[in-house]
Amino acid sequence: MTERGEATRQLLLDSATAVFSELGYAGATTKEIAKAAGVSEGTIYRHFADKRELFAAVFTERNAANFDAVIRLPELAGTKSVRENLLFLIEAIKDVERDVAPMRAAASTDADLAAALTSGSSMGPLTPLALYLEAEQRLGRIRPGVDVASAAVALFAVPFTAVTLDRLARAMGSSGEIDMAGAIDVVLGGILPQDEPAT
Amino acid sequence: MTERGEATRQLLLDSATAVFSELGYAGATTKEIAKAAGVSEGTIYRHFADKRELFAAVFTERNAANFDAVIRLPELAGTKSVRENLLFLIEAIKDVERDVAPMRAAASTDADLAAALTSGSSMGPLTPLALYLEAEQRLGRIRPGVDVASAAVALFAVPFTAVTLDRLARAMGSSGEIDMAGAIDVVLGGILPQDEPAT
Amino acid sequence: MTERGEATRQLLLDSATAVFSELGYAGATTKEIAKAAGVSEGTIYRHFADKRELFAAVFTERNAANFDAVIRLPELAGTKSVRENLLFLIEAIKDVERDVAPMRAAASTDADLAAALTSGSSMGPLTPLALYLEAEQRLGRIRPGVDVASAAVALFAVPFTAVTLDRLARAMGSSGEIDMAGAIDVVLGGILPQDEPAT
Amino acid sequence: MTERGEATRQLLLDSATAVFSELGYAGATTKEIAKAAGVSEGTIYRHFADKRELFAAVFTERNAANFDAVIRLPELAGTKSVRENLLFLIEAIKDVERDVAPMRAAASTDADLAAALTSGSSMGPLTPLALYLEAEQRLGRIRPGVDVASAAVALFAVPFTAVTLDRLARAMGSSGEIDMAGAIDVVLGGILPQDEPAT
DNA sequence: GATGAATGAGTATTCATTCAT
DNA sequence: TATGAATGAATACTCATTCAT
């Protein structure tokens, strides 16, 4: 692949991320994607075998970004406060989820599409999140007896849900922003040591 | 509308629910929906102006079902245990979400589609859930100081996330069932009175 | 199938025969076929699963016509003269071949296309032709010792070749009509009784 | 043209012959031809103005080969036996026809394609074949009164038809080899002196 | 009310051809 | 000379929608 080719490929990946995120898989036409990248439709097919492969590449790349947001988290155990760390993280997840959510939605209703995806990539953030919580638990900054895997689910569920409902509300023209921090604090109330109030 | 017409309309609504849930909006063709209902394609247009209106009718009906699952919840305040009530509820939400999730996904990536939806209908379960928690809080079965609106979000997020991730995992061929009860217990740990252990 | 539908199907079959014959399989676009039939492109797909199925239907129908031209031939044994019978037949074959030849050509260079064809249908005329010659041989109007199967090939080869070369010559703008009767007479010289001159 | 360029040109010609013969004109993509020649697609256009010109070059070259097979035939008049000479020739024609037939088929259904061909080149073998028969007729090895032009057609038609039907049978998965020698002997029965039996 | 035939705009994909390197 | 990236017109096929019966 020449340098120019590589650049075009990345351009397509970026444009496709935007278009898929905004319009979903079915709504994102190759015409639109090409236009967004400023290339011809044919060029897509020089870099990806078909639309599904392009989608898979974008989806994997975005999920990796989601994963990146949490992967270094375990190292933070013991620094700052647990609440600070988690709020920062939840915010990062939210950013990536905004791109990924509609793509995941598309993938989950299309068996062929799902087949093109790297297995397991979807639950990316859960494992590192659980690892972090476990480390903090060892340091006594998470209440003993808390099941860290379940706590990770409860924490991840908040930005995940917030983004999805927010998208819908936005599409419907209503406002209805969800108070993520509040929900996180509720969960924190269940996992932080009882003598250390969440807020 | 004759009786026969009404029957056909309901038949279409039921078939469409199944097809939309399984294939999403774009994947659900009118041909498929008509076939599932055992009527001709043309018949759809005698009952609904277009595909979007059919979708909106189905979506609203399903969301109402989701709402029904929680609407009587406030009355349960004080009966059984809070945990029992919530687990029962979360299970009910999960059942309905399985149908609604892919439709919501579709709606959230199609502005025209979203416009056809009754505003506000999507967050159906959140309000009654908060009302219930508030009632329990007054009864002393929920820790004072807990923000019930935020708690409702944290609780609702669990089945919501579980269903969505489960769909994707299933479509991708992986297993990965999410432990909903565990996550709920973590949240409960933050809202039940501290002397009453969650499990 | 309603009456109207049946009529449309036949209309498509007729138009497709003309377009396939003139332009070959690849050259015959669905757009062109639809236009020739005076229907929309989509209508083609109400009657045939895809272009290949339409082609197969046309090809089979035309080959059947070719077969019809010879199937009653054996009954003619003993009537008129052998030469008259064969010249009439060869002319009939030529007429049908003009339609079939380019379609056969297309089929022979496309494995998928060929697969859609009814096996064996292509050599249709050879068998009845051989049967006729055998009957005449029994009547003493064909020289004994002549291999009727081989004679059928030699006779069929003439209109077959004439049509194909003629098409090419025409396409190239040259004239070059082939003298079919002359060639047939040469073959007849080898199969008629020696005391009965061909011409 | 440099030596390297000339070599590339011939390489392309050879590869194109194979690909056109196997897939026909429409089925033979420039990508495939380039790949078969081990060069890039762009290189084709350094040697040929467009695909049609490449096709014309190949077609002419192959037809010339067909012509070569017969051109020296008249010199053989009087040597060996007429039957031996003709059977050898027919076999040679068959070999070349296998390549040419699908290309001729393509040419005959595409007016633009045909226009790119050297006029008259298609009937190559007929003239020398007639010349040979005429020479033999003068030597008394062909029955007087036989129209040599017509005899040439009858003889050429056999391998021509055999190859074409064979291709189709092969594509359709059936066997059905045609007995060329038998058919030739039938024709010979009509042109050899009557006292000299064909076989 | 219901049918199913017909529509035509729209979609992903292919492919001969061009051009900068 | 050769490359391979880019093009854009063309193609088979789909699908929501209309309408005569």
Give a written overview of the molecule.
4 copies of one chain form a homotetramer. The first copy, chain A, is mostly helical and 199 residues long. Chain A has 2 domains: 1-48, Orthogonal Bundle (Arc Repressor Mutant, subunit A), CATH 1.10.10; 58-191, Tetracycline Repressor, domain 2 (Orthogonal Bundle), CATH 1.10.357. Helices cover 72% and strands 0% of the residues of chain A. Chain A is built from 9 helices and no strands. Chain A has helices at 3-27, 30-37, 41-47, 51-71, 82-108, 111-115, 126-138, 148-172, 180-191. The longest helix of chain A is centred in the middle third of the chain and has 27 residues, at 82-108. Chains A and B meet through helix 1, helix 5, helix 6, helix 8 and helix 9 of A and helix 1, helix 5, helix 6, helix 8 and helix 9 of B. The first copy, chain A, binds a DNA duplex (21 and 21 nucleotides) through helix 1 and helix 3.
Keywords:
Tetracycline Repressor, domain 2; elongated; Arc Repressor Mutant, subunit A; homotetramer; 9 helices; mainly alpha; DNA-binding; 0% strand; 2 domains; 199 residues
Task: Provide a compact summary of the structure.
The structure is a homotetramer of 199-residue chains. Chain A has helices spanning 3-27, 30-37, 41-47, 51-71, 82-108, 111-115, 126-138, 148-172, 180-191. With 199 residues, chain A is mostly helical.
